[in-house]
Queue: 2 jobs
Job 1
Amino acid sequence: MSEETITEILPPIRHWPALDLSGVDFDPVLTELMREGPLTRIQLPHGEGWAWLVTRYDDVRTVAGDPRFGREAVPDQPVTRFAPHCAPRRRAVPFLDPPDHTRLRGAVAAAFTARGVERVREESRRMLDELVDELLQDGPPADLTAAVLSPFANAVICALMGVPAADRHTLHTWTELIPSSSHGTKAGERARDEMGAYFADLIGLREGGTGEDVTSLLGAAVGRGEVTLEEAVGLAILLQTGAEASANNSGQMFYLLLTRPDLAERLRAEPEIRPRAVAELLRYIPHRNAVGLARIALEDVGVGGVRIRAGDAIYVSYLAANRDPDVFPYPETIDFSRGPDPHVSFGAGPHACPAGTLVQMQAELLVEALLGRVPGLRPAVPAEQVPFRKGTSVRGPQALPVTW
């Protein structure tokens, strides 16, 4: 981009409050920001100052993958942010840049490949069948979140991590506390510390091992001196707490399918379209509140016709990118024939979520099991009475009452 095409005019700063949204309603503030321009300036409820917001698909991918925008500088300045429990930690995995970030993720990359995910598919299917067996045995009504979606997400990530079955309930409790502010910041910090101590012990026991699960891979990497134990524990916590986001994604997906029975019936009737349909649902679902983690411009960079100055904070919105009409025609429409579907629900660039293949597999298994084995599955309360989580960065139903 030439200097002549770059504007120096700063747009106004828009305050973006922490909204607790229900259902799959798209954030009205984000809708306005998308209309105002490809780049706007925002102020979030916590931290200080303002930050750039990027909403257009191509710009989002550019910023997410450009090494001139880094995460390591974020803890050094009071960046405006969505929630108090999102305060950056120096040397925490999400705030590492390459090459350290690349080195650390490389230690566990094998577990998240198609082959690595396939390794836990049959165990995941078996655990899901057991949960559905219990659901049917107990009979309606039921809370689908508590009975199936949340324990399934936790069990799958525990299997991939190599967490023994006897410890999975404890990990589930910690996982629910860490990303939420509804129980208080101290409760989340205590849960993080306890989970960290647990993984330090587990990874230490597996140093020198040859297992294919995440903690074995981390133990082997620590044993070879490729990563420190502190780095390994931080990554283990990050990956384990991803189960909460996965459960919430599944909750929104089934809320959508059960309140749009035409979509559910099509998936029952046409099982061959399920992988493509799941990808489209992942694109459409607003999986988080506001934005995730900031980056800092390390030098002056032109983005979308705007000059981002060195030191400026910048956020990308993957939700907005997934609704870019230049990439997804009629983005407000759920189109199971859409293809290709290059959604960025798992992020982009070096910090993209490594568990995308795993989440896709989980969703496909849930659609197969619940729509196949519980054909009369439907909401037990009106859609507007389904309670959604409050005070969290990830969106999803607190409970999903169903009957059949």
Note: The chain has a mean pLDDT of 93.
Job 2
Amino acid sequence: MAKFVNVCALSLLVGLSAQGAFAAQDNDDFVEDASAKGVAEVEAGKLAQEKGTAADVKSFADMMVKDHTAANAKLKSIADAKKLEVSDSAELLDKAKSMILELRSAKSFDQAYANNQVKAHEATIELFEKEATDGKDAELRAFAQETLPKLKAHLEQAKALAKAHGGDAAN
């Protein structure tokens, strides 16, 4: 039962990072969506550091925490200068309460984490690609362009991780 609860908690966190992959309508929307996805990545990574069992999953989770913490800090700096709001953990937890996600088919926490990382990064890349090409603010557009290669590298690593752990999101 505890394993199921942990998988559900992870699903909620990473699912939040995957939601709202639609194009950002303005600077506020991009900052809010990108920061929410970033916070979810950090929180999911911390959970995977704690609950993951495979060394490659823990290593990937460490990278997610470090890389997304750095990106979140850079985005927050840009947002603060423009007086834009960023998402925080409290907002994500409120959203998590309203979401119902289940991963009944997952064999393990590691598999669930890997699958969700693929889906979350696909959604985040879509958001960042839209901002990189259509963003109205030059600084936010540059941030999206600069961050995209790392997000794409994360996606490829997440796909390899999902494949290694029998996930269905590796394709």
Note: The chain has six helices and no strands.
